[in-house]
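Model the whole thing, not chain by chain.
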Amino acid sequence: MARNKEKNSHVNQNSLKGRLILVSILFALFGAGIVGRLFSLQVMQHDDLVSRSEKQHQRTVEIHYGRGSVFDRNMNELATNIKAESVYATPQKVVDKKRAARVLAKALNLNHKSIYKKLNSKRHFVWLKRQVLPAEIARLRKSSLPGINFISEDKRFFPKRELASGVVGFNGVDNQGLGGIEQRYDSTLKGNVVKAVMEKDARGKLVQFNKQANGQVSGSRSVVLAIDEVIQFFTEHHLKKQVAKHQAESGVAIVMNPNTGELYAIANVPQYNPNNFSAYKRNLRRNHAVSSVYEPGSIFKPIVAAASIDAGVARPQDTFFCENGKFKVGNKTVGEAVNHKYGWLTLQDIIVKSSNIGSIKIARQLGKQSYYDYIRKFGFGQKTGIELPGEEGGLLHELSAWDPMSLASISFGQGIGVTPLQMTNAISAIANGGTLMVPRITRAILKDGQIEKRFEPKAVRRVISIQSSRQVIDILKHVVKDGTGKNAAVKGYEVAGKTGTAQKYDAKTGRYSKTAYVSSFIGFAPADAAKVAILVMIDNPKGVHYGGSVAAPVFSNIARETLRYLNVPSSDQRVYILDRA
Amino acid sequence: MNRQKLKQLHCDSILFFTITVLVFIGLVMVFSSSGIYAMEKYNDPYYFLKRQAMWVALGTVIMLTMRKIDYRYMEKYTYLIMGTTFLMLIAVMMPGLGKEVGGARRWLTLGGLTFQPSELAKFALVLFIAKSLVKRSDQLKNFAYGYLPKLIVLGFFFVPILFQPDFGTAMIICTVTFSMLMIAGLRTKFLVYSVLAIIPFIVAAIMGAEYRTRRILAFLDPWQDPSDTGFQAIQSFYAFGRGGIFGSGIGASSQKLFYLPEAHTDFIFSVIGEELGFIGTLIIVLLFSVLIWRGFVIAYRAKDSFGAHVAIGLTLLLGIQAFVNMGVAVGLLPTKGLTLPFISMGGSSLLVLMLSMGVLLNISEQPVQR
C-alpha cells in the first residue's frame, strides 16, 4: 500500500487531468464529426438516398415485342413471331432449391446441376429458359414452385423451316438478327422494346414484372422479299435431290429475273432449320450464293465470246485453230476435256463444244486490256451490292498482276474467283439484251401493312450491245440444242446456256484436282425473251462429274417448273392455240 | 441486474447502466441484422442470436467476477497474461490450431469454439503498458528505459496481428499505446518521432495489399465505382439515408438483406441507422461518449497510477474502436474490419470487453478519497 501511495505521488494529477481533457476534446471533435455526417446522411440527404437506393432494388429486363415479319413476294410469311413463355427465377424466394432444380430440370429438359447453381445465385433474377412454348410449361405452371415465374415474350418463328433459310437468316434469343435478311434488316424489323421493370418490395422478397406496353405494337416494319416461295421450293427440291443422288458436298442454285435483277430463289444445300439454328455448324448456315467464291470453269466462256463479239474482233462464224488438243502456253500445256482433239472451229463451236484452246485463241485475239475491261463491266471482281450480309467480291487480279498464263486460263474460267450471284447476274446481262442489273433480294418495306419503301429495278450499266447479245444468245442456244448442254433442254421452250466442269483447286497440293469438280450449268429461258436466268452449281459430285450430266438436268427441272408457274407460254401452248383458231 | 447489490458496492452505476443498455441494443440488433441471413445460411433465424446471447451470459459472469477481483492482482500476473496472449497469437499461425476464414488467420479453434487472440492482445497490452509506466515512472524522460521496452513489446503484438492480417486491430493497438504514453506524460518528442517512423510502414502495408489500396481509393470517392470498391460505403450511406430521422423500425432494414456486407458485424451501425434513424444513431454516439467520460473519470479518481493507466487504456481501447467503426460506417474513415464494441456479433470481442468493463468497474469501486 505504502509503495503504491508513494508511486501515486509521481503522477501529477493536474497534468493528467489536462491531458485527459485534451483527449476528451479530440473524442468530442470526432464524435461531432460523426454526428454531423449522420445528420447530413439521415436528415439532409434522406430523400435523395432513398430514391437512389430504390433504383438498385429494381432491375430492368428488355423484352422485345412485335418484330416485323419477312414475307415472300406474294406475302407469304417466311419469318414471324409466336408467343412464347420465358421462365425466370428469383433465387431468394425459392424454398426447396434441391427439389425445385429437380422439377425444373425435368420440365425444361435442362441440366440439373446448372439449374441448381442458378437457384443458389445471389442475384435477384436469373433466366432459366427463354422462349419455351406455352404447352411445354403447362405442367410446370401447375406445380407452382415458389420463386419461379413466367413472362411471355415474342419468339421468332420460321414457319417454312428450311425454306429459303440461307436468305431469311435466323435470330438470337433476344430476337437480334444473326444472319441473312434478319441481320441485314435488323434495325428495320426490330419491333418494340419493352423495358420490363422488375420490382421487389422492401423485404426483397417479391418480384414481379411491371409491363409498360403490352401486345399492341405500332410502327412495326416488315420486309417483302423478291423471293417466291413456290419457285424457292422446287429449286431447293431439285437441287437437294441431285446433291443426294450424286453424294455431292453441297449445291447452290439461283433463279433470277434477268430483266429486273430480282431473285426468285436462292437455294443452298445442305439446308438448316433457322428455328433451331444453333444445332447446325456455322458453315451450314452460310449462303454460298453470295459468300462463297468459286472458280467458274467453262460457264465463264460465254463472257469471252460476248466480249470479243461486242468488241468487234470476232464474229460467231470466224474460225480459230484448236491445235489438235495440245497447246503450250508458257511452260504449261493446255488440253481439252475428255482429250478431245479439235482442229479448226468456229467461235460458235468453240463455245458449243467448250474448247479450252479455242477460248484461249479468242481471248488472245481480244487482248488482255479489253478482256479485263469486259470482265469488270460484267461485274466481276466487285460486290454486286445485294442487301444480304457477308457478300464476297470474288477474286480478279489487277491487270498488272496478270502473268503470261492469266489471259489463257481466265478465258476458260480458271484463275478467277466469282460468286454464284455474280455469275448469274452476268449471264442475265447477256439474256436481257446487254444491261447489267443490280441484283435485288427485297421488293418493299411495309410499315403497319402499308408500303413505305419500294425497291425499283436498277441498271448498273450497259455491258454489250443488243446485237452482240443476240449473237451470244444464239451461240448459247446451240449449246443446249446440239452441244454439251442437251440435258438442260425444256420441252416447249428454247433454252440458252453453258455447262461447266471446273476442276477444284487443291490448296494442299497446289494443283487442280483430277477427281474433285464443281459441276455447273448456267442459262436462261425462253432464250429469245428470257424470263428466268438460272445457275446450278454442284460441288464435288461422286461418279459422273460433267456439268452437262449433273447440273444441266437440275436446271431443266427448275426452268420447266418455273416457266410453267410464271405462266410463260410454251411452244406447245402456241400450237394448241393455233389449233383452236 | 441486481440494483440492490450495485448500490452496496458503490461501483460506477452510470457506467454499468450504459454497458447494460449497449449490450441489450447489441442483442436486438444482432438478431435484426442476422435473422434473414441466418435463416438462409443455417435455416435458423435465431442462430446468431442464440450464440450472441450465450456470449452475453458468459460475458456478464466474467464482468461481475472481475468486478470483485482487486485489479491490483492483475499487476502481478501481467507478464503471464501477456506471454499467454503472445503464444496464442503465434498459435494462430499454426495450421491445425489456427482457422482461416476468407484469407485471414485470426481465429484459434479450441474444441469447436473459436477465439480471436487479437482481442485478448488488446487487453494484455494495456496491462503491460500500465505496469511498465508504473515501474519506470521515474524514467519516463529516458528513451532507452522509459520508452523503448514498451515499443518493443508493442512490436511483438503488432507484427503477428498485422500478418494475420488484421490491419484494423494492429492500428488500434498502436493508437491506444501511443495515446496511453502521451497521457502518462511521455516526451512528446519520442511519440512524434515514432509516428514519423511508422508512417512508411503503414504506406507500404496499404500499397502492398491491393484491397487496402482500393479501400482507400474507394473511401476518397465511393461514387466513382459504386458497383465494386465503393460498394460497401455506398450501401452503408443508403442504409443511413433510408433511415431518416426516426428509422424504418426494428427489423425493417432492406439494406441489410443483400446489399450491406457484414451487416451483423462491421456494418451493424448502418443497420441501426436504417432501423432506428438519426435518433437511434445519436443515442449510440451518446452512449459511447458516456462510456469514455466515465472511463476517464474513473481513471482520474483511481487509487493508484496502475489503476489510472489501466482505466485510461481500456477506455481508449473501447472508445477508439467504437468511434473508428462509426466513422467508417458514415464514410469519415476508409473501410477497416473493425467491430462496434458490445453491439456487433462476435464472442471473443464481447468477452474481452466485458472482462475490461469488469476491471474498470473494480477500479471505480476503489477510489481515493480526495
